[in-house]
């Protein structure tokens, strides 16, 4: 029973830790499927988190925080779009620049506005996206096995966590069942085909990066107002990059993206869990090793086990009409 | 003349200093097949791209069915009933046929209903025009002939009454091309207007009603096809008389210079691209390898020249064995007298951002005569390049010009000059005239015959059947990685075409 509880707790924190990854990875999916590589997920999520923390503290409303986060990260996404779609700049350089801008400006603005060493003031429980108890969670918690599974694992997450997981089938539906999705996938593979079909390549890609902005805004909000009670400097801590790894790992497909994020979330949860506790046979594992595991895993698995991850064919290449 | 489906008046278009189209007037009658012929860079594709809204003309007017039309984008062209089949197919490789066809013409935001409608419409089109293709097949699994059919269906699905085809037969076998022509004639009978852009005279004569000739951006003549000849069109295209058939004496084959035995090459997925191929090339003869692109010719060339590792088999060069299965070394092969004009001059033959004189010695830069101690002897290299420019009539005659700024034909001459001037024993040539204009083709063909007459062994790989037939002393046909037959250059096109399509294969095997 103890073991079961430990296990459920581990899964519970897996879910919590994979939510920001899921937002960021799905965000990247829209952009990259349209042929715009986005290494700036990290920066957009960080800026989103800061905006969420700041707005929630000032306006006293979680929803204001969410709105601010989405606005700010759409803005950054449009900067990326302007550089890489309109001006055909290098998408990696533009993405890296956004990461730097976000990392620096959040600290400066945070210090200038709130004078708490770069953090935003802590907000109360009512101004956060707190836990949502699913119906009958309490009543069912006594039922063996299924009870704790329902009341601890499924119930009690932030509203945004449910949104993240519902976004998985939604994204799949958009991508494979709508006109927008068909065109989005086409423009990432062969923009010339889209252009000759009489559709604007630029406008289509702009819409894709706006989707990315919305979702990274949600991811940032989750970090600042669901996992924490305010913004802390560098709070994304590389999650944008892990999300990118998950996206590649899942070969740019929505459902595998969810499983990849859960896997990386699990590794994260596991590394927190075993901190300081020696493992049988191997002894104490340095925490840095566990933190590096997602990256090592991506490299190893991509190198041999799951086959080549073929990115969208036109990814990273600005569209220029050929002469 | 019937009413014009399309009329162009005074169309001009420049790209920077290059005047791609100058003051073009053209009338295309409804319900006819109208050919537009011209060398590469004559401005055919630019003109059609203007008509399809891909570019805008700097000056001039377009009339569609007598009405003045402002075509600012491809969607304007589509709305006017103009459809285009591009030279490089505008298909999404990992989409199904149906998805490609509805892309941009979906109708409603959700795919479910539009897909169902499109499927019904597609079935009707396939029935009406005999254009069968599986709507659920993925594009990359289809042979190019079928991919092209999808492009045609795409245009018809959008209600095209005027269909532009840009170099449609470049990727097809002769029999696939004939099938395409049948389809085009049928479309014409249905009242559609067809514009066929090509640089192949044979096609113009075979299928068009009228033909317009373009040269250096200008439209120089329009003729009724039945009232003109191949010779007249060639002359109009180039601006001077052209010898279409190469003149050559009989071959005097000497020693075996290149012997290939049981050569097998696999691609990265382990698929056999070259399957147990054996043949010889003797000094003083040209052996041509015919075949539709993608039947293992590229892999064969790469294996023989040491670029790609072979799985098994042996090659001897002038009696000496060549290591091909272990550590093949293209540089060593060059030292031993094997010169190679690669199929893809942009990726393998040249470094485009380099100056002409640098490309003119690339791969031979280790030779004493280009060196001064450990350094390159720039003076000697430029002098050498200047000699080659004169000898091969490379234009413009500027050794310092960036290679990318030469035309396709002149780039090819740079490669040929470099390889031929090394006085090799064996010359391996892949697609020597791909993307090269008629005037340069004539020159290149003459040089290849010269090489033969000097006693070199020449292995020629080309997808242009005419080229193979006029140059080769013996023709080998490759299909699905194997040599499926050997013929003399007198073999008919039909006979070779069947071999290239793999039809004759079983008969050969039975013998």
From TrEMBL, chain A:
Task: Kindly report the protein's main subcellular placement as a broad class.
Answer: membrane
Q: Report the Pfam families cross-referenced here.
A: BPD_transp_2
Q: Enumerate the UniProt keywords alphabetically.
A: Cell membrane, Membrane, Transmembrane, Transmembrane helix
Task: State the PANTHER family in the record.
Answer: GUANOSINE ABC TRANSPORTER PERMEASE PROTEIN NUPQ, SUGAR ABC TRANSPORTER INTEGRAL MEMBRANE PROTEIN-RELATED
Q: Mind telling me which residue stretches traverse the membrane in this protein?
A: 7-30, 50-80, 92-114, 159-176, 206-225, 231-250, 257-276, 288-306
Q: Does the keyword Glycosyltransferase apply?
A: no
Q: How does it sit in the membrane?
A: Multi-pass membrane protein
The organism named in the record is Chelativorans intermedius
What is the name of this protein?
A: ABC transporter permease
Keyword Transmembrane helix applies? yes
Localization in the cell: Cell membrane
From TrEMBL, chain B:
Family matches, as Gene3D superfamilies: P-loop containing nucleotide triphosphate hydrolases (3.40.50.300)
* Leader peptide range in chain numbering: none
Q: Specify whether Transcription regulation is a keyword of the entry.
A: no
InterPro entries, sorted:
AAA+_ATPase, ABC_carbohydrate_import_ATPase, ABC_transporter-like_ATP-bd, ABC_transporter-like_CS, P-loop_NTPase
Q: Which CDD domains match?
A: ABC_Carb_Monos_I (cd03216), ABC_Carb_Monos_II (cd03215)
Residue ranges occupied by any ABC transporter domain in the UniProt entry: 6-241, 258-505
Mind listing the UniProt keywords for this protein, alphabetically? ATP-binding, Nucleotide-binding
Please give the Gene Ontology molecular function terms for this protein: ATP binding
Q: Does the keyword Lipid biosynthesis apply?
A: no
Its family?
A: Belongs to the ABC transporter superfamily.
PANTHER family noted in UniProt: CARBOHYDRATE TRANSPORT ATP-BINDING PROTEIN MG119-RELATED, GUANOSINE IMPORT ATP-BINDING PROTEIN NUPO
Write the protein's name: ABC transporter ATP-binding protein
Annotated source species: Chelativorans intermedius
């Amino acid at each position: 029973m103890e073991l079961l509880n430990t296990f459920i707790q581990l899964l519970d924190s897996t879910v919590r830790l994979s939510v920001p990854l899921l937002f960021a990875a799905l965000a990247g999916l829209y952009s990259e499927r349209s042929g715009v590589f986005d290494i700036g997920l990290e920066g957009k999520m960080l800026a989103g988190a800061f905006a969420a923390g700041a707005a929630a503290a000032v306006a006293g409303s979680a929803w204001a925080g969410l709105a601010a986060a989405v606005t700010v990260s759409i803005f950054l996404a449009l900067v990326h779009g302007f550089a890489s779609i309109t001006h055909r700049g290098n998408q990696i350089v533009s993405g890296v620049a956004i990461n730097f801008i976000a990392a620096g400006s959040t600290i400066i603005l945070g210090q200038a506005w709130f004078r708490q060493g770069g953090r935003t003031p802590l907000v109360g429980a009512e101004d956060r996206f707190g836990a949502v108890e699913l119906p009958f969670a309490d009543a069912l918690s006594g039922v063996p096995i299924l009870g704790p599974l329902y009341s601890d694992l499924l119930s009690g997450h932030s509203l945004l966590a449910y949104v993240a997981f519902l976004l998985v089938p939604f994204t799949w539906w958009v991508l494979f069942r709508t006109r927008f999705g068909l065109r989005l996938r086409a423009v990432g593979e062969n923009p010339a085909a889209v252009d000759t079909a009489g559709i604007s390549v630029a406008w289509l890609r702009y819409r894709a990066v706006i989707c990315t902005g919305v979702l990274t805004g949600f991811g940032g909000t989750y970090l600042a107002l669901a996992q924490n009670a305010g913004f802390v400097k560098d709070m994304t801590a590389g999650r944008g990059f892990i999300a990118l790894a998950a996206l590649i790992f899942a070969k740019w497909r929505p459902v595998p993206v969810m499983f990849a994020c859960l896997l990386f979330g699990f590794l994260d949860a596991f590394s927190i869990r075993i901190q300081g506790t020696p493992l049988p046979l191997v002894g104490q594992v340095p925490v840095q090793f566990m933190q590096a595991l997602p990256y090592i895993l991506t490299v190893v698995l991509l190198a041999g086990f799951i086959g080549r991850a073929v990115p969208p064919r036109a990814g990273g290449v600005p569209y220029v009409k050929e002469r | 003349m019937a009413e014009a489906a399309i009329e162009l008046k005074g169309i001009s278009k420049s790209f920077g200093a290059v005047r791609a189209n100058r003051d073009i007037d053209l009338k295309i009658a409804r319900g006819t097949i109208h050919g537009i012929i011209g060398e590469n860079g004559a401005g055919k594709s630019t003109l059609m791209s203007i008509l399809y809204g891909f570019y805008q003309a700097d000056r001039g007017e377009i009339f569609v069915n007598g009405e003045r039309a402002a075509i600012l984008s491809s969607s304007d062209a589509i709305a006017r009933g103009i459809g285009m089949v591009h030279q490089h197919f505008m298909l999404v490789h990992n989409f199904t046929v149906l998805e490609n066809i509805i892309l941009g013409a979906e109708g409603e935001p959700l795919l479910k209903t539009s897909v169902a409608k499109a499927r019904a419409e597609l079935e009707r089109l396939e029935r009406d025009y005999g254009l069968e293709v599986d709507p659920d097949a993925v594009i990359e699994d289809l042979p190019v002939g079928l991919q092209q059919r999808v492009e045609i269906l795409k245009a018809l699905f959008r209600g095209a009454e005027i269909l532009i085809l840009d170099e449609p037969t470049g990727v097809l076998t002769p029999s696939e091309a004939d099938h395409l022509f049948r389809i085009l004639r049928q479309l014409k009978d249905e009242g559609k207007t067809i514009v066929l852009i090509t640089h192949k005279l044979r096609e113009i004569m075979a299928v068009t009603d009228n033909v317009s000739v373009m040269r250096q951006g200008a439209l120089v003549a329009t003729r009724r096809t039945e009232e003109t000849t191949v010779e007249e069109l060639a002359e109009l295209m180039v601006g001077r008389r052209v010898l279409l058939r190469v003149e050559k004496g009989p071959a005097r084959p000497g020693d075996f210079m290149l012997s290939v035995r049981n050569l097998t090459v696999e691609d990265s997925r382990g698929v056999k691209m070259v399957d147990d191929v054996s043949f010889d090339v003797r000094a003083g003869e040209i052996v041509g390898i015919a075949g539709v692109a993608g039947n293992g010719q590229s892999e064969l060339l790469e294996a023989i020249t040491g670029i790609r590792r072979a799985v098994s088999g042996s090659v001897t060069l002038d009696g000496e064995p060549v290591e091909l299965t272990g550590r093949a070394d293209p540089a060593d092969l060059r030292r031993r007298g094997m010169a190679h004009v690669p199929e893809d001059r942009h990726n393998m033959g040249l470094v485009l951002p380099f100056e002409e004189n640098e490309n003119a010695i690339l791969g031979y830069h280790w030779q004493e005569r280009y060196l001064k101690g450990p350094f390159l002897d720039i003076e000697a290299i430029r002098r050498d390049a200047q000699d080659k420019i004169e000898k091969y009539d490379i234009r413009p005659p500027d050794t310092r010009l960036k290679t990318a700024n030469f035309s396709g034909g002149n780039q090819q001459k740079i490669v040929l000059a470099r390889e031929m001037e090394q006085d090799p024993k064996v010359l391996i040539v892949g697609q020597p005239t791909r993307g090269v204009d008629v005037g340069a083709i004539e020159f290149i063909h003459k040089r290849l015959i010269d090489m033969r007459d000097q006693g070199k062994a020449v292995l020629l790989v080309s997808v242009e059947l005419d080229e193979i037939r006029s140059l080769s002393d013996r023709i080998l046909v490759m299909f699905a990685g194997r040599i499926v037959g050997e013929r003399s250059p007198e073999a008919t096109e039909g006979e070779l075409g069947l071999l290239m399509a793999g039809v004759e294969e079983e008969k050969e095997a039975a013998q």
